[in-house]
Every structure is written in C-alpha cells, then in structure tokens.
TrEMBL record:
Coiled coil: none annotated. Residues 29-103 form the LCCL domain. It holds the Pfam family LCCL. This is LCCL domain-containing protein. Residues 1-20 form the signal peptide. Gene3D superfamilies: LCCL-like domain (2.170.130.20). Keywords: Signal.
Length: 351
C-alpha cells in the first residue's frame, strides 16, 4: 500500500550569539530583506524589539526576500515575539521558484540565518517526525460494460423493420440498417441488439451521455412507429407501444417560408437521385415570388415526383436550392418532418 509522509518539525530553542565584529541594525517586525535584494553574500545583524506580532513569511530555513525577518527568526525558533533579540542573516541567490512571475535584478533573492561561527542554521533533521497516513484503498470498477440492449415489441402487430440512430449517424448515412435483418419480431417478443455487431450504436449509447436516439419501426400493412429514446445504462431496454404509431397524414401541400431579407425568385427541391444527376429541370416557383417574411404553399399534386418521394417517408434528405432577386444562391439539406411539412430559408442559408 502506498504511504503518504507528513513532515512535522520540532524546533529546538537555542540562543544565537553575535558574529564577531558585527554591526547591529535595529528593525521592526515588519522589516523584510527588500533593501538587500541582489546583494548576495552580504551578512547583516539585526535587533528586534520585544512584544512583536506575527508577519508573513515565505519559505522555511531559506526565506524569500519579502518575508518578515523577525517572524522568520521566530519560525526557526531563534527568537520569541515576547522578548525579541538579535539575529544575523546571509543574503543568497535563491532557486528559480522564488521568481513569482517577475524578472529584474535580484528577483530571486533569499536569506538564511547564521550562527556565531558564520555557519548557516538549518532545521534540525533529528527533530523531524514521519507520520504514515494510509491512502484509501483503490477499488477498480468491476462492473463490466453492457454487451447488448433489448427492444420489446408491444405494438400489437409484427415488426418487419427496426432502425435506431442518432442525428450524427443519419448525417453520415449509417442510419438505414435494419436491425432485424431478415427476421420478424412478433408482438410480445423481444430482440437483443449486440454492440459487437453495431459499434456505432455502442459508441452513442454507452459513451455519449444524454444522446437522444430515434427509433423507427415498420409493421405489417406499412404501419409505422417512431419513438425517441434517451438511453439509461442502468436499464438498456426499448419498449415499443401502440401509442408510438405514426398517424399517416395526407401529403397534399408543402410550405416554404422566406425568413431572409431578400425575395426568392427560383426554388429547386432535389431528391438524392436528382442531386446526383444535377437535374434542375423542375423549378418549383414557376414565376411566383416569395417576398421577405412570406410563405408559399406548394401544391404537391402538381409535383408527382416530390409527392412520391415524401409518401415513402424515408430518412433521405432533400437538397433545397433557391435564388434571390439579385441572383445569389441559398442552399440547405432538408430532412422532412412529416407531421409538419415546412421548409424555412433564411440569410444563414446563403452560400
């Protein structure tokens, strides 16, 4: 077991005679070695008056120049605040950690105390006690990471498709995988989804706290279910219920909202196939203008390709391209929200 060592210094009181021939300078308990910065090897003897009060010191044995000389002497047990007394110091060049962020002549000045023979006084090593303080024992987490999660079908029908993905997975095109493969999931049964076979889901579920995933399922007769799942690593289970079924709405219109500063005069809604061919043969506005702040309602009955695409309710993105009255282009990818078919274009969409 690792041990931490606490140093406790027991200081021994002894009298400090003057160095022969030393001149004595009277100082107060506030006096520091500031006046002697950079005057390395100089020795000075000081007289401290009685009835002193503690002042700041920095160091032990060797003190930074801005330490109280008197309080440093008391810390070394060379004086007492009650009686005061005489001490001799030696100005030395200290280690770099006394720099304190500044650089100038004498910036790392320190001082030590001398005895009557001119030797540096150091703390008595025999007075140091070592006390072992045991650390709390380290206990590694022994709980293994989950290997899978469970999806339970309580929808009242048999599922033929199951997809689970995050917004990031959808953005890079790994969201279409059918987790049921070629199997079916009857009502009242569950399936285990293993992370080893689905590393993208493992990363999102186990290591991205708070991530919301979209759960899509398709049942017989093209019934569709959707559920937003925030994983809980203490209970990795999804339960699909009848209330998660998506009610089919009549796809008759699509709203385009212009929140930009300028009027829109051209609009193209390209399916992935059209985008791949750069097919701009279908211009939606047909001479209409969507002014700033206005909404244009597009009749999907006039655009069979667009209605057909939307009726499939896939997770594919539409490319939305528009041009304003000055010919400047706007662009965005649009993921249809089938409960509310709206496209909003703003100044943020300018290329």
């Amino acid at each position: 077991m690792k041990q931490r060592t606490l140093l406790v210094c027991i200081l021994i009181v002894f009298a400090l005679p003057l160095l022969p021939g030393s001149e004595v300078t009277s100082i107060t308990w506030e006096t520091t070695a500031q006046e002697y910065k950079g005057r390395y090897t100089e020795k000075i003897t000081f007289q401290l008056p009685p009835n002193g009060t503690p002042k700041p010191v920095y160091g032990f044995g060797e003190y930074a120049w801005n330490s109280s000389i008197g309080s440093a002497a008391v810390a070394m047990d060379l004086l007492t605040y009650k009686d005061g007394g005489t001490v001799t110091i030696l100005i030395v060049e200290g280690p770099e950690y006394y720099k304190s962020g500044e650089t100038y002549e004498g910036w790392n000045t320190t001082f030590v105390f001398l005895d009557a023979k001119g030797n540096i006084i150091k703390p008595d090593e025999a007075s140091i006690m070592y006390i072992d303080i045991p650390e709390e024992p380290f206990e590694p987490v022994s709980t293994p990471s989950p290997k899978s999660f469970t999806v339970s079908n309580n929808t009242g029908t048999t599922l033929t498709y199951l997809g689970i993905f995050s917004s990031d997975m959808r953005a890079v095109g790994v969201h279409k995988k059918n987790l049921l493969a070629n199997e079916r999931l009857p009502n009242g049964q569950s399936v285990q989804i293993y992370f080893a076979e689905n590393p993208d889901l493992e990363a999102v579920i186990l290591y991205r706290y708070g991530q919301v995933l979209q759960v899509d399922a398709t049942a017989e007769r093209q019934r569709e279910f959707r559920y937003e799942w925030r994983p809980d690593t203490n209970n990795l289970q999804i339960i699909l219920l009848p209330e998660h079924e998506r009610k089919q709405k009549s796809l008759t219109s699509l709203a385009v909202i212009n929140e930009g500063e300028y009027a829109l005069v051209e609009l193209y809604l390209l399916t992935p196939a059209m985008e791949a061919k750069r097919d701009y043969s279908k211009e939606i506005l047909q001479g209409q203008v969507i002014r700033s702040g206005e909404t244009c309602v597009i009749d999907l009955m006039k655009w069979p390709y667009l209605r057909s695409f939307l009726e499939k309710q896939t997770q594919d993105l539409l490319s939305v391209e528009a041009y304003d009255e000055d010919g400047y282009p706007l662009f965005q990818f649009w993921l249809p929200e089938y409960e509310n078919l709206e496209i909003t274009l703003s100044d943020w969409d300018y290329l």
